[in-house]
Design brief:
There is one protein chain. With about 200 residues, this protein is mainly alpha-helical. The chain has nine helices and no strands. Helix 6 packs across helix 8, helix 7 crosses helix 8 and helix 8 runs antiparallel to helix 9. It comes from Nitratireductor aquimarinus.
Length: about 200
């Protein structure tokens, strides 16, 4: 039987091991046995905590999304306007988030969300939250332009992740952030005389 008080520690160890395994092989080639071995627990104990690989993938993506949210909320809380959007971009593409193993987990998430209802719901929550956060910093734009810009930024973030997961695109966080900020600046310039609100 699992030792009392060890469950949160072992669940986190299994999640970390899942991220590591996915980063090396991709979700479809990862087994519970491999993940359990990396976490230093038995396969039976891994199944005790998560049931199966699908349950562990769900918990892993929920953990990644929770960590992302925990970074975004304090980063954007004191900000408004374009600087709020820049903070969202910076956190989503930070060195911590743009690590190969996290990117690989996102690629698995995109794929599995199409077939798994629970992951699909989790993905829609992420999409809605990102869109809402971006719109909150684009309130000075006309509504159609704000929606269009938010969708463009979200698509760029997802696209940079997907290309990096496939070994293409930019390799570092700083360049990825620059590309998305460049798009933001162009979008703002279309609606801001002389670019006066670009850093407001």
């Amino acid at each position: 039987m699992p030792k009392i008080g060890m469950e949160p520690i072992r669940r986190r160890a299994l999640i970390d091991a899942a991220i590591s395994a996915i980063g090396e092989r991709g979700a479809l080639n990862v087994t519970m046995s491999d993940i359990a071995g990396r976490a230093g627990v038995s396969t039976a104990l891994a199944h005790h905590y998560f049931g199966g690989k699908d349950d562990l993938l769900f918990a892993t993506m929920r953990h990644i999304l929770t960590q992302l949210g925990n970074e975004i909320r304090p980063a954007i809380a004191p900000l408004s306007g374009p600087e709020r959007v820049r903070a969202i971009i910076a956190v989503n593409l930070s060195p911590e988030q743009f690590r190969p193993e996290i990117i690989a987990a996102w690629l698995a998430f995109y794929v599995e969300a199409r077939r798994d209802a629970a992951l699909g719901r989790l993905f829609r929550i992420y999409v809605h939250r990102l869109h809402s956060d971006l719109l909150s910093g684009l309130a000075d734009l006309p509504r159609p332009a704000a929606i269009r810009t938010a969708r463009g930024i979200a698509a760029l973030i997802d696209g940079l992740y997907l290309r990096r997961a496939l070994g293409e695109g930019v390799e570092d966080s700083r360049t990825a952030i620059f590309l998305v900020e460049d798009y933001l600046d162009m979008a703002l310039a279309r609606h801001t005389p002389h670019g006066s609100a670009l850093h407001g």
